[in-house]
UniProtKB/TrEMBL annotation:
It comes from Leptolyngbya foveolarum. This is Acyl-CoA thioesterase. One of its GO terms (molecular function) is fatty acyl-CoA hydrolase activity. InterPro entries: 4-hydroxybenzoyl-CoA_TE, HotDog_dom_sf. It holds the Pfam family 4HBT_2.
Length: 137
């Protein structure tokens, strides 16, 4: 199954005192990927919220391999490495314009019912929507 790829550009406001992309920017880039993924499976946030549930993050992990610098162009990828009843693990890769791996990451998300803030199992139909991007290790 495919990974969802999306382009990113490093701008001056992404750069920290050490001269490379700040660690918090990767978390923002992961959020962009998650948003693109739910849109790609035809479950945009507006539709999910109207149905009374939504995604929350319970864990984030990032390993930095090579710094990204001002002006770099980045190709990011997201895919699901695990899909359960109410939760999913998303994996990420970030490559610079030379095809060099800059970082890898993972996030664990959980769907919750908005009114109760308790886990909500996805329907079989919704799970099937996500299966296109599922690459289990």
């Amino acid at each position: 199954m495919p990974k969802l790829r999306y382009p990113l550009t490093v701008y001056p406001f992404h750069i920290d005192a050490m001269g490379h992309v700040n660690n918090t920017v990767y978390i923002q880039w992961m959020e962009i990927g998650r948003t693109l993924l739910i849109e790609a499976v035809e479950m945009p946030m507006s539709r999910i919220m109207q149905q009374g549930f939504g995604p929350v993050l319970v864990a984030t992990q990032i390993s930095y391999k090579k710094p990204l610098l001002l002006g770099d162009t980045v190709t990011a990828s997201i895919w699901l490495s695990q899909l359960r009843g109410a939760s999913a693990e998303m994996s990420f890769e970030f490559f610079n314009q030379h095809g060099e791996l800059a970082a890898i990451g993972a996030q664990r998300g959980l769907f919750i019912t908005l009114s109760t803030q308790k886990p909500k199992r996805l329907s079989a139909e919704d799970r099937d929507r996500f299966s296109h991007y599922l690459i289990e290790a």
